[in-house]
Amino acid sequence: MKKNFLESARHIAVEGPIGVGKTSLARRLAEYLDAGLLLEQPEENPFLARFYRDPRHYALQTQLCFLFQRLGQMRALAQPELFTRAVICDYLMEKELLFASLTLDDDEYSLYRQIYDRVAGQSVPAPDLVIYLQAGTEFLIERVRKRGAEMERRIDDDYLARLGECYIRFFHDYTAAPVMVVNSEHLDFAADPDDFQLLVQRIEAMRGPRAYFNRGN
C-alpha cells in the first residue's frame, strides 16, 4: 500500500504570516510524529528589534542575517544521512525572498537576490510537504497583539496586511512541493486535539499536489 504524505515525508515545513500559529503547529506535529524540530530563531537576529523601530534603515541587515541563519539550518537537511527521523520546520527557505520583496527597495532587493541566488541556489532541498496556514488581517493583528512580544508591538497593521497578501500570491504560484492550504482562523491545533486530528486526517487523505482544509468543509 502506498504511504500517505505524513508517513513518507522526511521534511515538513509549516508556513504562513506572522501570528498565524506556525510554531505551535510545528511543535505539535513533531511530537505526534516523533520527529526532529527546526525552528526560526528571531531572538538571535540582532537587527530585528531595530527593524521594527526603523524598517527603512535596517531591512537589508535584518534580511541578510535571517538568510545566513536559516541557510545554516537548511543545509543540514541536504545531508539526509545525518537524520534518522523526519524533521518539522516552522518556515520555508523561500520565504526570505517573500519578506525581502516586501521590505527592501528595488536596488537593495536586486543586491539581496544576487546574494540569495549565490549562497542558496539549489543547495536547499524542497520539503516533502508544506502546510500553509492562512488567516485574515484582523485575525493576524489580534493574534500578534495578544502575544504581546516586545518586538512585535511595533509591527504596523498595514505591514501585516501586505504580508498576508504576499503569502497568498506566493503560494498561488508555488509548485516545488505538495501544499496543504489551511484556513486557521477557527482552528487551534495547539489546544484542541480534535482540530489537530482533523488536520492529520486531511493530510493523510491527500492524493494530489494541493489540498484545502477549512473548518466545516
Structure write-up:
- Helix content is 49%, strand content 12%.
- It is of the alpha/beta class and 217 residues long.
- The protein has a single domain (5-214), classed as P-loop containing nucleotide triphosphate hydrolases (Rossmann fold, 3-Layer(aba) Sandwich), CATH 3.40.50.
- A 6-stranded parallel β-sheet has the order 2-3-1-4-5-6, sandwiched between helices.
- It is globular.
The number of helical segments is 9
Order of strands in the sheet with the most strands?
Answer: 2-3-1-4-5-6
- CATH topology descriptor: Rossmann fold
Question: How far apart are the termini?
Answer: 27 Å
User: What's the structural domain tally?
Assistant: 1
What overall geometry do the principal axes of the alpha carbons give?
globular
The total beta strand count reads 6
Oligomeric state: single chain
Question: Mind summarizing the main beta sheet?
Answer: 6 strands, parallel
> What is the average of the pLDDT values?
88
Look at the helices and sheets and give the structural class: alpha/beta
| CATH uppermost class | Alpha Beta
The helix/strand series, from N terminus to C terminus, equals HEHEHHEHHEHHEHE
Estimated radius of gyration? 17 Å
- List segments where confidence is low: pLDDT < 50 over at least 5 consecutive residues: none
Just name the CATH architecture: 3-Layer(aba) Sandwich
Question: How much helicity do the residues have?
Answer: 40-55%
Name the CATH superfamily assignment: P-loop containing nucleotide triphosphate hydrolases
Portion of residues in beta strands equals 5-15%
